[in-house]
Amino acid sequence: MKNSSLKDLIIEKIKKEKAVTFADFMEMALYYPELGYYTKKRDPATIPDYYTSVELHPVFGETIAAQISHLANPVLQKSKESFTVIEMGAGKGILACDILNGLRKRNKGLYDRVDFVLIEANRSLLAEAGKILGEHKPKVSFASSAEEFLKESEEDSVTGCIVSNELIDSFPVHRIRKEKGKIKEIYVSWDGAEFKEVLGEISGEEVKEYINRYGIELKEGCQAEVNLKISDWVREVSSILKRGFLITIDYGYLADKLYSEIFPDGTLRCYRKHKIDTNPYEGVGMKDITSHVNFSDLEYNGCINGFKLIDFTTQRDFFLRWGILDYVTKFAVGKEAFTTELFSELEAIKNLLLPDGMGEVFKVMIQRKG
After folding, report:
1. CA distance 361 to 356
2. Does the record carry Transferase as a key word (predicted)?
């Protein structure tokens, strides 16, 4: 199977097992070594399939820098050790660069004590990050996984802050649907011509426990996603962080809204060339597959791994709290005319704040350990 396509490899797995969970299908589609959407080599010149908040405007990273500065100061007053900021799913380093620029401008004392680690599974993106972060290079390091970081680190764990932006939404999910009054799991099969969804019994106790924990009672014909990877991820984060903070930015809701009648078909979405669809079985490995984050589960897993919730808010309110309007004012003052540059700046910031766009759907959760 050395020269097989990703689709062939998935079909081969299905033939061996007759059907696979959607989580297994999604895992291969996104993360299969060198072939998955997130792991294949990327041409830096390629236009992305979607834009994240990070790419809209550098003020995104600057506001996170303000939050990190606020969180770090009390910690640093009690200790002389360095403060490590780790971005998980760092991509090509745009957010890391904006955070570091923000720290240097806002809190030089903290900037001088910061070690910044980028964790990114795609090594071609890490290579790009190395170029983008050139001016900050002495304090920046790279790893392809948390395991690699810990292996190369002199410490078993760190004091600092772990940041992720639009990471959890791409974790593989199980999918469930209610048919004939009973919740079943959606599996993926192959009929010789195309991928087909088939219903079967719930694949494991973890899925059942999740359904019970959040009281998921779907209406007939409705479906939803179950993200079990959050549990593994928080456990991994906890193993890295001795003391400090976890800042998670992503789109999603608390469980009561996520599993309500608002989303009768679930929240699974695919992105390719700035177009959205709901068919993950076409263009396998060529498009992103995501689902909304259950922030109740992030809080729950944080609690059982030593984290305490200290803040949960919308992206809009987070930015307003940390001075995004001050940035707009400073940028606009002194402009003699409403230039194209000024319009572009204001338009980008508006997209970060709109109640019916990124501003409300995106949430920021901050958890503290130690």
Report:
1. 8
2. yes
Report CA-CA distances (Å) from 359 to 61, 125, 350, 362.
15, 27, 9, 6
- Phi and psi based region of residue 307 (left: phi greater than 0; alpha: psi -120 to 50; beta: remaining): beta
Mutual orientation of helices 59-77 and 94-106 as an angle, nearest 10°? Answer: 60
Residue 330, CA distances (Å) to 33, 104, 262 in order: 46, 18, 40
In tens digits, what is the pLDDT along the chain, a chain of 370 residues? 445 799 999 999 999 999 999 999 999 999 999 999 999 987 665 655 655 655 556 788 999 999 999 999 998 887 788 899 999 999 999 999 999 999 999 999 999 999 999 999 999 999 999 999 999 989 999 999 999 998 888 788 899 999 999 999 999 999 999 999 999 999 999 999 999 999 999 999 999 999 999 999 999 999 999 999 999 999 999 999 999 999 999 999 999 999 999 999 999 999 998 899 999 999 999 999 999 999 999 999 999 999 999 999 999 899 888 877 777 666 556 555 556 665 666 666 666 676 666 557 899 999 999 9
Write the secondary structure of 272-334 as one string of H (helix), E (strand) and C (coil). ECCEEECCCCCCCCCCEEECCEEHHHHHHHHHCCCEEEEEEEEHHHHHHHCCHHHHHHHHHCC
Helix (H) / strand (E) element for 140: namely strand 140-143
Give the fold, CATH level 3, of 42-370: Rossmann fold (3.40.50)
Q: Which two tokens stand for residue 197?
A: 């969804």
Contact 61, 352 (CB under 8 A): no
d(CA 159, CA 142): 17
pTM of the model: 0.91
Quick count: other Cβ atoms within 10 Å of Cβ 355? 10
Residue 184 CB contacts under 8 Å (≥ 6 apart), including other chains: 176, 177, 178, 199, 200, 201, 202
CA distances from 204 to 26, 27, 180, 236 (A): 17, 17, 20, 22
Query: Among residues 206, 188, 268, 226, which one has the least CA distance to residue 13?
Result: 188
Task: Write phi, then psi, for 275 (nearest 5 degrees).
Answer: -120, 145
Contacts of 253 (CB under 8 A, 6+ apart): 292, 293, 294, 295, 363
